[in-house]
Each structure stands twice: as structure tokens, then as C-alpha cells.
């Protein structure tokens, strides 16, 4: 029987190896990682929306969503935007290099509660990463969900992640709406900011749950736009990106009042966000 993936020391990462690196955009790379112990890899379990800490030995660790779906377990996938010391170090790694993984951490999307509902994903830039894990889970279990619509945008066509998967998403019955902020030569999809395209599409809130992630300014206007369309707070889910250190609720680096993003999140409903707003 496979052994349970656990460490007596919660700060001790599992050893892994980078199997593949994909250059998504000029400043975002995707890492496909396999745990070195085959039994640990076979026993590894997680839910869509959970995160992990990636360790670059001698540099540090940082938190990223596991954006591969639990329905596809040949590797663990993380997408990393180059923004700081640890992410720059990650971008310098090569296929075959060792890497530490502390995962899974945090809560997850309520997949069972979403069964039978229409789903609206609204993403921007690297914010598509946490949405991807849930999107592909639903694609692999397509008969359990209703209409799936994705509104995904970025500054330019080159800033859209997972472009090589768009045809696969469409083949799974996903209504994919792509947009960029301004006109680009050869671009044949929508042009406009994501909140504007959301208002133009005006997807009905009836039996639908909206899930959004992206830059904070985008999320702010998407949440307002969803409310204008009639979505109730409990029909809206998002993920919060706050700096996490320990990942297990001990250090207090990610707390918002008495809420710890690394334990109570990163997935929150808009109902929960409204309770936390005075602390943000």
C-alpha cells in the first residue's frame, strides 16, 4: 500500500525534481515537478485551490497554487511570475534540478457544492493559475457541471498563460472568451479590460457561481460588476494572494484580523471577504 505523504517536521519539504519547464510569458514560467520518492508521488493527494511552498535551496521558499488538477497526477504543476528573490531563483532553475515541495496547504474550492451549477471563471494574467486547476477538474468530470464559461484577459496576447491548452478547453465544451487591453496586430479576439467584457457578456446569475482571480484592481471591478449583474455574495468565490511564510498558520505573516490566509484560505467567498474588509 502507498504510504501517506507526511513529514514529522511540518517545515521539512519533500524532495522533488523539475521534469519540465514551460515559458508561459516573458516573466512567467510553469514548473512540472515529480516527487523523488515514487511512493510519496503515488500517495500525494490535494484538492483544487490548495497551494504549496516551493523551496530553492540556499535561497528560500515561496507559495504558489498547485495548478495541475487532482484528476491528472503524473506531476505537480506550479506557475511562477518573476517578482522577487525566490521567484528569480526559481526562474534560473533548469529541467532536472532538485526542488523542495511543502504541500498541500490551505483550503480548496468547494467542488461538491458546485455540481449541477453553471460556472463562470473570470481571470486575469497569472490569476488564471488557480482557476486552471478547477477548470481542468471540471473538464475531466464534465457531466457533473452545467455551462462553463471562461473570461480571460491580459495586457497583451503574449501575457496570456496556457495558450497551448485553449483548444483543449474548447473541446471540453468550455465557452472561452479571450480579451486583451488594447489592439494588437493579428489579434482576432476581444479587446477591452476584463470587467468591461464581463459587463458586455452579462452572464445570468441564475444557478451560476462566479470564480475570479487576477490583479487586485481587476478583482475589485469584477466583484462590483458581478454585484451589478445580480450575483449574491455566496455566488462569488475568489482567492487571496498574501505573502505566506510558514504556510501552516503559526507565524502570522498572512493574517487578516483573526483569519489566516494560509489555513482558512486562500479560497474565500465574497460573504467571507465582506466580513474581513475592515482588516484588509
UniProtKB/TrEMBL annotation:
Free-text cofactor note: Binds 1 [2Fe-2S] cluster per subunit.
Highest taxon of the lineage: Bacteria
Keywords: 2Fe-2S, Electron transport, FAD, Flavoprotein, Iron, Iron-sulfur, Metal-binding, Transport
GO biological process: pyrimidine nucleotide biosynthetic process
Domain spans labelled FAD-binding FR-type: 11-111
GO molecular function: 2 iron, 2 sulfur cluster binding; flavin adenine dinucleotide binding; metal ion binding; oxidoreductase activity
Chain sites annotated for binding [2Fe-2S] cluster: 246, 251, 254, 262
Entry-linked Pfam families: DHODB_Fe-S_bind, NAD_binding_1
Cofactor(s), by name: [2Fe-2S] cluster
Name of protein: NAD(P)H-flavin reductase
Organism annotation: Desulfacinum infernum DSM 9756
